[in-house]
Structure of MFS transporter:
Amino acid sequence: MEINKTKQKRTNARWMTVVFLFIVTAINYGDRATLGIAGKAMSGELGFDAAAMGWVMSSFGIAYVIGQLPGGWLLDRFGSKRVYFFSILFWSIFTLLQGTVHFFIGAWALVMLFTFRFLMGLAEAPSFPGNSRITAAWFPAKERATAVAIFNSAQYFATVIFAPIMGWLTHEYGWQSVFFFMGGLGIFVSAITLFVIRNPKDHPLANQAEVDYIVEGGALVDMDQKKDNGKQEGPKLGYLWQLLTNRMLLGVYLGQYCINCLTFFFITWFPIYLATQRGMNIKEVGFAAAVPAICGFIGGISGGIISDFIMRKTNSLSIARKTPIILGMLFSMTMIMCNYVDSIGLVILFMSMAFFGKGVGALGWAVMADTAPKEMSGLAGGLFNMFGNASSIISPIIIGYIVAWTGRFEWALVFVAGHAFVAAFSYLVLVGPIKRMELKKKD
């Protein structure tokens, strides 16, 4: 008797995993955006000027950059699951503690806010390299940009969801409540990480058909398998020089630095811009800031879908990744038009266009998942994020001083838009062909 063998239907545990990354990243960016919403009320009560707030905002970036290489090394040494859990737990605790700085007097309030913000940045350092490692482990190349776009677009979704909530909390219960709410939410989600983040081969909801599919597509499913079995030590730091001297990666690093300048403007100074220069109250700011964020979310998802569509049609990583990045960055320069209009509606329109373009072009983590050496994807991602987030130190300070010196935001917008142009130039001219870097083995 002939037995008909039917092909096993593929499961979709990889998409459940990326949805969880989306949720974690939304909370991540919600925590970063707390000062953007609560900053005006906080600075008014505690007596901080624009320059002081710029330094406080940059404290996160200072720690975040310092923590990238150690965070990447920890991911490669201990795997994504454990490092991801402790990262979320501790950054949430330090977010919550920022709501207590009013108990300190005078300059000590500023010192403690800077300290808690610094520690939050240090704890968040492994988050995006962890996202990149998990995506590289779970997704074939032809789906990777969409997966990265999903979790990366959470930064816009965070504003859509959390900005109105934080604006309402600030208005009704005071600025302290913003930090208590976001910190408590993160602590709760950290516990869920222990159950959701798994190796593809060990995930109870992923069948063999799905594992085979992602392996055939180039997913690095064994990255954490070796760590869990205790068979591999962390990557050798001697290979770091190869990462630092590779032209393709240097172009990607510069591009990410510039893209993150736009990111940190939108999550830190943009709400303050609406409140101070455009005269909106805190509740209006929360809802107004959500409109460009929705456009950024749509742009972010669109960029990933477009990139993977081009990838399927051309089978060229370079064309598929570069096209949305270059066009998106050039389109985001429309924010300069805000300097020439008085209407709040037009300001929101131009910022929405800029945020949409930034979302389309924010594919740096997809490029990193495509290019990082398989032996040290965590460290490579940490280095990438270290360069990218140097702008989180520099740009808030420069914008703070521009606003303090001029009393307005016109030149600050020019400063941010200029970074979008440099990002497009970097991918167009400097990066060259996009491909996975092969390390030169040492004896």
Observations:
- The two ends are 58 Å apart (CA to CA).
- The chain has one domain: 13-430.
- Residues 107 and 130 are 36 Å apart (CA to CA).
